[in-house]
Amino acid sequence: MKIKKLSANKLAGTSFLTAIAASLCCITPALALISGAAGAASAFSWLEPFRPYLIGITVVFLGFAWYLKLKPRKTKKTECACEENKKTSFWRTKFFLGIITVFAVFMMMFPDYAPVFYPDNKKEAIVVQQKNIQTLHLHVQGLTCSVCDDHLENAVYKVPGVINVKADFHMGAAVVKYDKSKTSAKKIIKSVNTTNYKVVRDTLVPK
Questions:
Q1: Residue 174 contacts residue 157 (beta carbons within 8 Å)
Q2: CATH architecture of the domain covering 118-205
C-alpha cells in the first residue's frame, strides 16, 4: 500500500490494534485475576520482546494520522454547493482520532497503573519462631513485566504460612519467606505454577 493512499482512519485503526498488542502481555494477568482464570495469565507473554516495536509502530502511525488530519487541505472546485456543507462522519473526525489516541496511551501505560487491579494480600505482622522461617528462591519462567510480579505475589500470598514474597521479572525470580511449620516449598511452587508461570528451579537457602 502506498503512503499517499493511507488515510488517517486506517492509521488510527492500526494504532488501536498495535497498542492493544503491545500491552496484551501485561493486560492478560490482570484479566486472569478479575475473571479467576489464573491459567491464562501468561498466555501472551511471548509478545513481550516485541513490545518496544509495537509501541514504536503505534506512536509513528498515530503521529502520521494526526499529520494527515491537521495538514491544510488543498482547495478543490466542488461540482455542487451541497458538497461544501456535507457533514463529516464521526469516524473521520478529530474527536474520534483523539479518543483512539487517549486509548492507545492508556494501553501503552498499562503496566504503570495495573497494580490497582490487585488486592493487597500482604499479611499483617505475625509471630513466627525464628527456627521455622525458611527462605525459598525460585527461578520462574514467563515473568515479563511488573504486572506479572504482582500476579505471582498475589497468588503466593494466598498460601497459609507465607510471610513475605518478592518477585522480580528482570531476574525471572521470586524470593519467598514462609513458616515451614505451616506450609512447604512444594505447596508454594504449586501456587506459582497454577498461575501458568513455571518454576524451572528452586533453592532453599540454608540457615
A1: no
A2: 2-Layer Sandwich (3.30)
DSSP string, 68-114: HHHSPPPP---SSGGGTTPPPPGGGSHHHHHHHHHHHHHHHTHHHHG
| Global pTM exceeds 0.85 | no
pLDDT averaged per 10 residues in sequence order, the chain, 207 residues? 58 76 64 52 62 81 85 61 60 83 81 64 67 93 83 89 92 94 94 87 78
- Do the Cβ atoms of 188 and 162 come closer than 8 Å? yes
Provide CB contacts within 8 A for 116, sequence distance 6+: none
Look up residue 64 and give its three cell numbers. 502520521
Alpha carbon 62 to chain centroid distance?
20
- Say which DSSP state 129 is in: -
Minimal CA–CA distance to 147: which of 41, 43, 58, 51? 41
Other CB atoms within 10 A of residue 79 CB: 7
Burial of 65 (0-12, 13-18, 19+ CB in 10 A): buried
Q: Which residues contact 206 (CB under 8 A, 6 or more apart)?
A: none
What span, in angstroms and rounded, lies between the C-alpha atoms of 189 and 143? Answer: 15
